[in-house]
Amino acid sequence: MSRLRALPTTGDGTDAEASLGVDPWEAEYEKDIWHVRRLGITASNRATISFERITRPWLRDLAKRWARWRLPAGLTAESAVWGTRAVASLDAFLDTSGGTAAGPADLDRALIERFLAYLHTHAAGPVSHRTQVGQFNLFLLTIRRHGWVTDLPATALIYTEDYPKKTTLAPRALSEHVMAQLEDPANLDRWPNRHHRLVTVILIRCGLRISDAVALSTDCIVRDKDGAPYLRYLNHKMKREALVPIDEELEHSIAEHIAHLDRTSGAPTRLLFPCQRSDADGTGHISTATYSRSLGRWVARCQVTDEHGRPAEVSPHRFRHTLGTRLVNLDVPQEVVRRILDHDSHQMTGHYARLSDTSIRRHWEAARKVDSSGAEVTLDPDGPLAEAAWAKQRLGRATEALPNGYCGLPVQKSCPHANACLTCPMFVTTAEFLPRHREHRTQVLQLITAAEARGQQRQVEMNTQVLGNLDRIIAALDDTTDSSRPDTPGPDTRDAQPLIPHPDSAGSGR
């Protein structure tokens, strides 16, 4: 089999064959490894497509024809690689099946069922398994639709039931404990590569996919009519330009980076993150694989740990999930989150909303809740009414904006207590409201003192009851924060330990 050979280049970096008027498709097609940039196709992290593993000539010819048809239509090189890999898996299966499979006529349903079983045991994980089934299905549909073969059996089909079932995705957002370490300026300054440092900040604040971030151009900043800055990038997955709002700090960092490129680069470049070994025409940017490896080394160097003290597992795409979850936790409308992340459907954005609700519910169930008299309130998370009770709490949190707790009264029923929540049996509060309770206690003491001076005994009695409830609430919630505080000495953060995410304490959401 032929190997990819280095083509001579002219002084401006173009291929000698192209300069002689040779059609690049004619030059590449017969090779077993295609260099996609020579075909005029932009490649992010997949520069070649290999057909070497496909040993059957008839199958290799169909795979090449399929790739040649897909790439000019706008398919990414990565997707073409996956398609070729699925055909290579079929070829590998035929080697082990004991059959000859002399041509497409042998690809009947019985053989396909055996191939699906082969993929189940040989695919590298559920994502690869499902992707290869889908790519093989597209391969069969394409060669049949375009008449590239005439003897493909009518039973050569993939049905919906053939796809492996999707599993519910586990939460992928990084915890605020981990993010606080990653966003620490001192840790960010430990990046040895200024390109990778800025890529990290962009991933955290803008939620781009890593392939889109490394491919940013130097004209990526645009402004609206009010002068607000936006980051403009090419969404390679959706094949469209997208905009995401940014703050002035990130805009300044990008401008400084461009100025650094102008000072240090030997020639002008249109790329924000050019690779040191870039092509002569300036089309090469740092690769996603290089950044991912560098990210792992940086996280280890900074000794970033999770809540249990174990080394944190950080990947570029988790920054995207983290931004989406942060925005949802801050009650940003789902449509706005969808536009910021440039999702194609609300279903994907809704995944973040589901994760947010799950996270809030877990904290709510774990938090110690006390009523207006300081007595503990218990809710059974596994009881027969658990789901309905949580729905009621969510509705109450959305419709009853109390400054110091939550109303447990059904929303269909009007409150008979004239906003006297601290003497109401339906009132529930948690440790996140301790600062409000202490502030309220000071105000109540001032009211009692003033009422006593004026001889307003009834007002003294009413506020004394409120003061007693406040004292019991604060004492009960103080026990919660004291028991959860580590033994090691540190700053007094007793008043800043929210057990339930709250708009005043949910992080920056950048």
Description of the molecule:
By secondary structure, this protein is mainly α. It has 3 domains: 147 residues, no CATH class; 138 residues, Intergrase catalytic core (hpI Integrase, Chain A, Orthogonal Bundle); 130 residues, no CATH class. Helix content is 48%, strand content 6%. It has 18 helices and 9 strands. A 3-stranded antiparallel beta sheet has the order 3-4-5. Strands 1-2 form a two-stranded antiparallel ribbon. A two-stranded antiparallel ribbon has the order 6-7. Strand 6 and strand 7 form a beta hairpin. The protein is elongated, with a radius of gyration of 31 Å. It starts with 15 loop residues before the first helix and ends in a 26-residue tail after the last helix. The N terminus and C terminus are likely disordered.
